[in-house]
Design a protein that fits this description.
The protein is of the alpha+beta class and about 60 residues long. It has 1 helix and 4 strands; from the N terminus they run ββββα. It has a 4-stranded antiparallel β-sheet with strand order 1-2-3-4. The N and C termini lie far apart (about 45 Å).
Length: about 60
């Protein structure tokens, strides 16, 4: 079993950041909001991305 983890920063601003982490073949997304970090599975991330896109169009 491979326990190697690989971080991939996919977006970053002065105060916020998003990175992916591959762990045991699964992708997890981490959204850093100043002093809070949200953790998402791939399925949760897809739903969250839809939510943010819809909110930004309002």
């Amino acid at each position: 079993m491979n326990n190697e983890e690989t971080y991939d920063f996919i977006a970053e601003t002065e105060n916020f950041g998003v990175h992916r982490l591959e762990h045991d073949g699964e992708l997890f997304y981490h959204v850093e909001l100043v002093n809070i970090t949200l953790h998402f599975t791939t399925e949760e991330w897809d739903e969250f991305a839809i939510l943010v896109r819809e909110a930004s169009n309002k």
